[in-house]
Design a protein that fits this description.
37% helix, alpha/beta, three-stranded mixed beta sheet, 10 helices, binds nicotinamide-adenine-dinucleotide
Length: 275
């Protein structure tokens, strides 16, 4: 039985990471400030702490135990909203990343897994990208200067979890919600933007496996789908609106050291059948 801290453990990916650890028989402390996370996502066997990055080292439950690893997933995950609120993007992500790295150093926690994004590679000039890029650099800094064992997972677009909230702004849950509410889907631009979609169970497995990996691993399928192509699968009227500035045209994994197991065809079928 091992002891883990999972930040962002009430979010849609983090809560599945927590569930997997608990089903293995491990103990989990979730740190989450409920920014986008939901209390109903909390595994009943997990402990829960709502505290800010600045207070971590004064939390008895954190400093009185021996931890095997930290899975750090907390961030302001809504990329577009982060463009309008860089302070929130920085506060939620980068500040907590540094705090968690510092906790590992002070408490001699042997491993941290940082969940980053391919935004670092494809669009590092927006607040979400700046935050993730700087967080990765801090991971490198702590690894180099304090000999910390940190591995980084860069995720492509994750979809399929029933807990995926539209407040994160991700395309597939947003399409599901729009169709459910309005019977139609809005597409930014002409829908020619291409993305690489990863079913959430593959992302969760990759994050857990990263405990025993080194370096940076990009998690994608290597196959891109145009947003228009995805929207047509929803079989409802489409409405075209202005595309926000600064979005990249194509984000597809070039090389993954992790083999995804669920094809987009199977994953989207499951996601659509849950509507
Ligand atoms: N969903 C995707 O497609 C995707 C793609 C690439 C990377 N990621 C990354 O994966 C991680 C998880 O994303 P998600 O989709 O589950 O998003 P999510 O919004 O569902 O989860 C993020 C969680 O972090 C919490 N949080 C935010 N700021 C916090 C803070 N300062 N202190 C404590 N908790 C805080 C939120 O309340 C939420 O529970 C994030 O780091 C995100 O950037 C997600």
């Amino acid at each position: 039985m091992k002891n883990y801290i999972v930040t962002g453990g009430l979010g849609h990916i983090g809560s599945h990471v927590v569930d997997e650890l608990i089903s293995r028989g491990d103990n989990v402390l979730v740190i989450d400030n409920l920014l986008t996370g939901k209390i109903e996502n909390k595994n009943p066997k997990a402990e829960f702490l709502n505290c800010s990055a600045y207070d971590i080292l004064s939390q008895k439950v954190v400093i009185s135990r021996k931890w095997d690893a930290v899975f750090h997933l907390a961030a302001f995950s809504n990329v577009r909203a982060g463009n309008d609120d860089p302070i929130l993007a920085q506060e939620s992500g980068l500040n907590l990343t540094v705090a968690m790295l510092n906790l590992c150093k002070v408490q001699n926690i042997p491993k941290m897994v940082f969940v980053s994004s391919v935004v670092v590679e494809f669009n590092p000039h927006i607040p979400y990208g700046i935050e993730k890029d700087a967080s990765e650099r801090y991971c490198l800094y702590f690894a180099k200067h304090f000999n910390l064992d940190v591995s980084v997972i860069r995720l492509h677009n994750i979809y399929g979890s029933p807990r995926h909230d539209i407040s994160t702004g991700n395309v597939i849950p947003s399409f599901i919600e729009q169709k459910r509410k309005n019977g139609k889907i809005q597409i930014s631009g002409d829908g020619s933007q291409v993305r690489d979609f990863v079913y959430y169970t593959d992302a969760v497995s990759a994050i857990l496996e990263a405990e025993n990996k080194k370096g940076i691993t990009e998690i994608g399928t290597g196959r891109g789908y145009a947003i228009l192509e995805v929207a047509k699968l929803f079989n409802c009227p489409l409405e075209f609106i202005d595309r926000p500035k600064g979005e990249v045209d194509s984000q597809v994994c070039k090389k993954s050291d992790y083999k995804t197991t669920i094809s987009f065809e199977d994953g989207i079928r499951k996601a659509l059948s849950s509507m």
